[in-house]
Amino acid sequence: MEEDVTVKPLTLRIQDLNPHIVCSLCAGYFIDATTITECLHTFCKSCIVKYLQTRKHCPSCNVKVHETQPLLKLKLDIVMQDIVYKLVPRLYEKEQARQKIFYQTRGLHLGHVRPDRSAEQSFDQLARPAPTLHRGHFYCFDKQVSLRIEPSSNDAELPKILQKFVRCPVRTRALQLEKLLRRKLLLPPTRELEILCSGMVLDQDTPMKKLMVITAYDEKEDIPILLNYRLKKQ
Ligand SMILES: [Zn+2]
Ligand SMILES: [Zn+2]
After folding, report:
1. CATH code matching the domain that covers 144-231, chosen among 3.10.20.90, 3.40.50.620, 3.20.20.70, 3.30.450.40
2. Alpha carbon of 43 to ligand 2 centroid (Å)
3. From the CA of 155, how far away is ligand 1's center (Å)?
C-alpha cells in the first residue's frame, strides 16, 4: 500500500482523548458505545438504557430523546466502540473477562444469553450476537467494507488522518464517519465536515452499503472505496 512519508503524524495523548471516549454516566470507557440519535451524545449501552428507563432527556445536553419510547432513539456506535478498544490498552480483554465471570456465576454460556435481555426487548435495533472470545471475529456478524479516506485536494487547511485505510460495517453511515474524522482531526464541534465519494457530497444518512453499489465495489478484490473529506463552508 502506498504511504505518504511527507505527512507529519498526528500525536495524541490519551488524556486529551478521554473526554471523547469516557461515559459521563459511569466515568468509565465506553462499553457497547451507544449514541442518542437526536443529539449524538454517546454513553455505554447499559448506562443509557438504565438511565432512560426513568427519564426522557439526554444526560449531557438535556434534549428530549422521546416522549414514550426513548430506546428507539438509541443506536449502537460500533465505530466509536472500535476506536475505544483500539485506544485503551487491555480494555477489550478486561471486558471479555468481566462478561465471562458474569455468565459463569449465573451458569450461562457466553454467546448464548445476553445479561440485559429485558432492556433489549424494546430495543431491537441494538440487537446483535454476543461477542465471542475471539478478538478477530468481534465484529464479523456484519459485512465489512474497506475505505480509503483522504482530505479533499482543494482543502489545504485540513491535515491527513494517520490511518487512512479503514474497514467498517457496511451499514456504517456517513455521519458516523464524519464523527470519527472530527475526533481524529480534533476539530471543534462547530466545524463540520463533508464527506465526498466520486466528487459527490454524501448525505449524513448514506450507508456505506450504498457506496458499494455506486462505486461497483468488488468484495473479492476489496479495493478500498476512496472517500474525501473537507470542511463545510460556514
Ligand atoms: Zn457508562
Ligand atoms: Zn445529548
Report:
1. 3.10.20.90
2. 10
3. 37
